[in-house]
Specification:
29% of the residues lie in helices and 33% in strands. The chain is an alpha+beta fold. Strands 3, 4, 5, 6, 7, 8, 9 and 10 form an 8-stranded mixed β-sheet that branches. It has a two-stranded antiparallel sheet with strand order 1-2. Strand 5 and strand 6 form a beta hairpin. The longest helix has 14 residues. The radius of gyration is 20 Å and the shape is elongated. It holds the Pfam family DUF4279. This is DUF4279 domain-containing protein.
């Protein structure tokens, strides 16, 4: 019942804003509606000891309105959560997709083999690729995304290292940065050490999105 109370309070803040920052965001951004209510992307009960976080999908955008509530169901703060897409990727001009898949030994992968027809049907791929993306929701902080992905890769680290020796393997990040948001990126030494143990580099593409607040 408590979760429903938090959600109800967060929705009320969207429909009848009490904070000026909420009003500023909603002047330039539209929350996506699902079944007649603001669409919730994610509910996070353990954001901190005292705070619950609820993430709402913004219409036609790759980022989220994040509402924090105290455990007493009071609105604490509102801001934008940038969207992050992180996945393991390996490419090769010599190995097929199936061979890359056998090396990776993970489910829910996607990709193609060198020589296969592209989706547009007009040309063929000049190299093979396999992608592994265990976290589909883009509403997590970048470091949280990376920690979850690395934890999954570490479960069969020998396979990952073998892949890096036989293909171009790395972590790929797509960051959808809200134009009026915080653009900083920081990796602590522990995360860097985990990447190094898996013999992985990281590639980050940043896209500036959305309308600035007035």
């Amino acid at each position: 019942m408590k979760k429903e109370k938090f959600i109800e309070k967060a929705i009320e803040e969207i429909l009848n804003p009490t904070l000026e920052i909420t009003k500023q965001y909603l002047e330039v951004l539209e929350i996506e509606i699902e079944n007649g209510k603001p669409k919730i992307e994610r509910y996070e009960n353990d954001f901190s000891d005292d705070i619950v976080a609820i993430y709402f999908q913004i219409k036609n955008e790759n980022f989220f309105l994040e509402i924090h509530l105290t455990k007493n169901s009071e609105i604490d703060s509102v801001w934008i959560q940038n969207a992050h897409k992180t996945y393991f990727s390996a490419t090769s001009e010599n190995l097929t997709y199936s061979e890359l898949e056998n090396l990776l030994q993970k489910e829910l992968t996607e990709g193609w083999s060198k020589g296969e027809l592209r989706k547009n049907g007009k040309s063929t791929h000049t190299f093979s690729r396999i992608n592994y993306e265990p976290i589909k929701s883009q509403s997590y902080e970048l470091n949280n995304h990376l920690e979850i992905l690395l934890t999954e890769l570490e479960k069969n680290s020998e396979n990952i290292i073998k892949l890096t020796e036989n293909a171009n393997a790395y972590i790929s990040v797509c960051k959808y940065q809200y134009i009026s948001g915080n653009a900083g990126i920081n990796f602590d030494n522990k995360l860097i050490e985990r990447l190094a143990k898996l013999n992985l580099g990281i590639d980050i593409d940043t896209y500036i999105v959305g309308k600035p607040i007035k």
